Amino acid sequence: MTTRDLLLTAWDWEPSIVIGCAALLALYFYFVRPRSLWRILCYCTGVVVLLLALVSPIDALSDHYLFSVHMIQHLLLILVVSPLLILGVPADFAVRFLGRPRIASAERVLSNPFVSWTAAALALGLWHVPLFYNFALAHEGVHVLEHLIFLVTATMFWWPVLTSVPELRLGAGATVLYLFLASLFNSILGIIITFAPLGLYPAYVHPHDVLGILLLIRNQWGISAVADQQLGGLLMWVPAGLIYFSIIVGTVIRWQSGSEIDLTETQDSYIARGEHAA
Amino acid sequence: MPAEFIHHKNRVLILAFIFSESIFFAFLITAFVLYHGRSPNGPNAHNTLDPLKTGMYSIILWASSLTMWLSEKSMMNFRMDRCKRWLEATMILGGIFLIGQGFEYHGMFAKGISIGTDLFATTFFSTTGFHGLHVFIGLIVLLIMRGLTSAGFGQEEYQREGFIAASYYWHFVDAIWVAVFFILYVWGTR
Amino acid sequence: MSEVPVALPVLRKLERFEKEAGMLSWLASVDHKQIGILYLITALIFFIAGGVEALLMRTQLMFPENRFLLPDAYNQIFTMHGTTMIFLVVVPGLLGLMVYLVPLMIGARDMAFPRLNALAYWLYVIGGCLLYFSFFAHDAPAAGWFAYTPLSEKPYSNLQGMDYWALSLLVIGVGTVATGLNVIATVATMRVKGMSLRHLPLFTWMSLINSFLIVAAMPALNAALVMLLIDRQLHGNFFKPAAGGTPIYWQHVFWNFGHPEVYIMVLPAFGIISEVIPVFSRKVIYGYAVVAGSTVAIALLSFGVWAHHMFAVGMGHFLDMIFAASSMLIAVPTGIKIFNWIATMWGGAIRFTTSMWFAVAFLIMFTIGGLSGVMFAVVPIDWQLTDTYFVVAHMHYVLFGGTAFAVFAGIYYWFPKFTGRMLSETLGKWHFWLTFIGLNLTFMVQHNLGILGMPRRVFTYPNIHSWNVLNFISTMGAYVLGISVIVFLWNVIRSRRHGALAGPDPWDAWTLEWATSSPPPVHNFNYVPPVRSARPLWDLKHPENPDWQRGRRTPHHAR
Amino acid sequence: MHASSVLQAHSRLDQPIVHLTIVVTAIMFAILVLVFFLVVYASLRYRRRPGMAEPYQNFGNKKLEITWTVLPFLLLVSIFVLTVITMGDSDPPPTTANGADPSPDLVIIGHQFWWEVRYPKAGFTTANEIHLPAGQRLLTRLEAADVIHDFWVPELGRKMDMIPGTPNELWLLADHPGTFLGTCAEFCGNEHAWMRIRVISQTPQDFADWEQQQAQSPSLPNNPAAERGEQLFRSMSCANCHTIRGVSSADVGPDLTHLASRETLAAGRLENNPVNLEAWLHDPNNFKPQSYMPNANLKPDDLSAMVAYLETLR
């Protein structure tokens, strides 16, 4: 099999995924009734990326051959799909949807920054513990669960940062801290995987060659098992880190260039109060 | 910067300091992880550490975080007597932990294991030693706090801020031990 | 206007004490202004020591196979030169400016923790003395300023020099962290009414970001030093290959500190330039938010680039590529700053004072250093040029052409505030041109030396015609630099007594430090003008066109 | 001696680096010229003239900011792509056709302050001088005996650290016969400056001859002076540090088995001829102060006997 054949044939149109994605779109257009082209674009891109991540050769490669591609798949779910879906939700719908007290209180708990940060970190950290990761690889059902958990926790994570409802968004300083700590966690995990000895995830060291492309990968692409694990760690460490990084810098610039005069956020120094000096 | 930060220069300082100290420890712990398994013949985590016994002392140390928190709460409620009692309890628990560490070291010295014996010993004594040093400094801080409370400290807001800063430091010392314990004693001996 | 309570007996007492105690008051001072000046003077003294070391080195390298210095002496001198310039000159000098100016710029009375401030300064003095004491203990450190293991370990650096080195840096490191924490706490909690974080003068903003860098980076150095000391003094095994240790771990930990350290040495310089260029161009800084935000970008990225010092180590291509990418990326926010500074000059009414000369020269000199830095991010070029004189040229363009030029710009700018008297512009111009010519003579040719294959840190070199010529030119340039420093010292000493009186605001500037007398009183301000933008004094002087109205008149401020 | 320029390539592996260096330098130079022009233009055009009012206060422009963020970024991305391509071309991984790690053809071990050079396949050791068959790449393993050194021959390709405990590998190749000078590029102690190396590329036939000659033991001393020199070598401390095959075995100092066949003495410090050899033995400190080669304080006739002996080691 050549790379070309692989890209053309290794598509797995798993019905549940296709139906799920179609349902996501249908629900969106039926209930949300978006009007802004920008939001529709975000949402649809999100769904398309989701579909691509789960049915394209990415999925075949990540299920059987390459840890690094599996990492790409997870990063797509966590760092691309979830943020895009959230960006696709317009404020008016969010406000309507959260109008019901129960849902509103659920939102308050789930998007509490401590809760959402911890949930996302736990999901990412625990699923990369070799025990759980290998178990998920071996059992398809658990694997699906893994992906669902990533999607849910990532949505919780990004909601307070990206939601279109300004009142629900974290302040600039809190956002910076929130994302900085997340990227720190992410980097540490990535660094550990990069520098760990080979064999954290044995399924990728000696893959079952179901598609007959192992030689292609090892020789033509030149990705050895060692390089694969390193690359996977590096992907988690750097490109993912850069996404957090860009959002942090964007947040700071947007906040710094805010020109409104907000006297409530400025403070009295002790000179004006004059109490400590005495 | 949220408005509640205004008076909290002690708190800002100690939080930034804790951040700084965590990075210091991160490099020592990384050295342990990096060199884990490189002392197959000499003493290593498997044949030297006793997670059970140290686990007991660890629980005592973590319990001291609880008593510290209670002491802080009492001060905030102007219950100075309780504050002093809980502070003393914290110091006793911290002291017990240090004594436990002393016994552990003593046992290792008795077996001829010292910091230069092999890579395990070097990384182990460095990490736990620096942690022990931090506990010791924490105890001195608490001792000062105890002395000050006897002198009527804790009525003014800025004084309570100082107390809170001290308690943050103590919680940090305990939190670092969580990392040290689980990496050196649990992961290291698995 | 917010009025300072005038009847402050404590302050009165302090002021009287300062008058009566005279010189003694400096020793016991906890006043941020005095401590700032002490930092600057101490850094200047060490600058002279480091400069003399540089001249000794250049004299040895003036001719091939020269016998002026023996190898061990040469190695000690270059190690001391690097260590001195980085840890005893640049960083403390910048800290001095920070502790002097940050409280003034945010309208505060002092640092958040004045005694901690004094402690940090004295730790620096003790550390510096400890380092130089090693000369008297017969053996200064000689393993280079990054002290790669195992060369810095016992069998290869047998005498006490390395121990002095490690201990002194540990002491200085603790002091530096203390000042970093102090600046953070000061900016976080001591700002005057109206001074929101968005209205910070850029020097203060960059000092704040710089302090975060210090707080995050110095512990890596401290950890490295502690491990080295354990190896040397307690027979530890951290970096001993024979015991299974990895010498490369030292490099990882050290550069985890070392690369952020580069930005620690350059961010406050950016801050100075961001103050000087607008004032002398008579224009507001162009793209305030972008300049401030790109500083955050630099700070964050600086922790992801450390291993670009290690491309020759053989880490594998993947890691090399990753660090190449992040190192190239860091050039983007740096470039943004350069463009914003040029845009600030664009359309202005530029006054070419000595300060502005240095600032403008900074733009070009720093660009040279920055661009050669990008070349080092290109891994194959680094494989060839790292550890050659090209690196020496690169980092001197960054640290001398960059940081030192900015600091000179800052000193010509703030000297009137520090002393109440102006520095001589005539001597200043001499100083500038000698420095400019000396810098380029010394270091431009070192690029060529590197390309011609001359490794760095050699006490002598074989008789190769092209090397001989270039080294001779470089040495002549170093002597010119030596003369320029003498001119500068003379200017400082003379102007301190005989300079023209400055008055509170000689440059018609816009930040709060110019709203008080020169030098400021012990309590800093009698009145703090209202702060409603990043340029409170501009608002005061131009009531018809204050900055804070900008957002109201043109909804999209971009024009 | 001549300078070995980074911009000269005498190896197919170095050629891409030279090209990349020139391209990147040109780009950087263009940017420098742009910045220089902008700064100088702004300085001249916008000087304050007497009677000028405050200029218009321009707070910034979003489009310009985005432009000078995105353009440099794109430029850097293209440089990055070139970087990655060149890395692969100039430093290919040490694998054979079937993907396995081959065994090295050449092992170079850095010592304070000299180079041990082993040819494991031919089974001999030499020092401070590497011979290569032109046009044929040798897999080279780099090690260090004490501290970190760095192997660098600018005209043949990348430099690579030699780290105690962590060997590195690279391909060493010279396209055509010639002598290429190199040096230790990582500061390694007192005599770092005089830790120089030369790579001598020969036609395959010459190389084979050289290899054969090096693999032999040296002929026995054939005149009385040389015989006495050998006695001295054995009886004095020389043999404690230096190997001469059949005479002594130690690796503190360079292997001297075929010393007289080499081009230089003391890691590139001196040209190898009897006069220099005598001067070196008379006072090593004069040439490499503070290196580990002691002054044996030989009496004049011992000295000439020693030189006579060492000159027989061909």
Q: How many domains of chain A, as an integer?
A: 1
The global form of chain B is elongated
Q: Give the N-to-C terminal Cα separation of chain A.
A: 82 Å
Strand content of chain A: under 5%
Q: Structural class, from secondary structure content of chain B?
A: mainly alpha
Structural class of chain A: mainly alpha
Number of strands of chain A: 0
Unreliable stretches covering 5 or more consecutive residues of chain A: 259-278
Strand percentage of chain B? under 5%
- Report the helical percentage of chain A: over 70%
How many DSSP helices of chain A? Answer: 14
The domain count of chain B comes to 1
Question: What does this 3D model show about the protein?
Answer:
The complex is a heterotetramer of chains A (278), B (190), C (559) and D (314). Chain A has 14 helices and no strands. Chain A has helices spanning 3-9, 15-32, 37-55, 57-64, 67-87, 91-97, 101-110, 113-127, 130-138, 140-162, 172-195, 214-220, 225-256, 270-273. In chain A, helix 4 (57-64) packs across helix 5, helix 5 packs parallel to helix 13 and helix 11 (172-195) runs antiparallel to helix 13. Chain A has one domain (8-256). Chain A is globular and about 55 Å long. With 190 residues, chain B is an all-alpha fold. The longest helix of chain B has 32 residues, at 119-150. Residues 1-6 of chain B have low confidence and may be disordered. Chain C has 559 residues and is mostly helical. Chain C has one domain: Cytochrome C Oxidase, Chain A (Up-down Bundle), CATH 1.20.210. In chain C, 67% of the residues lie in helices and 1% in strands. Chain C has 19 helices and two strands. Chain C has a two-stranded antiparallel sheet with strand order 1-2. Among the domains of chain D are: 106-213, Immunoglobulin-like (Sandwich); 224-311, Immunoglobulin-like. In chain D, a hairpin with a 4-residue loop joins strand 11 (264-265) and strand 12 (270-271). Chain D is α+β, with helices and mostly antiparallel strands. In chain D, the strands form three sheets. A five-stranded mixed sheet of chain D has the order 3-2-1-5-8, with no helix packed on it. A five-stranded mixed sheet of chain D has the order 4-10-9-6-7. Chains in contact: A-B, A-C, B-C, C-D.
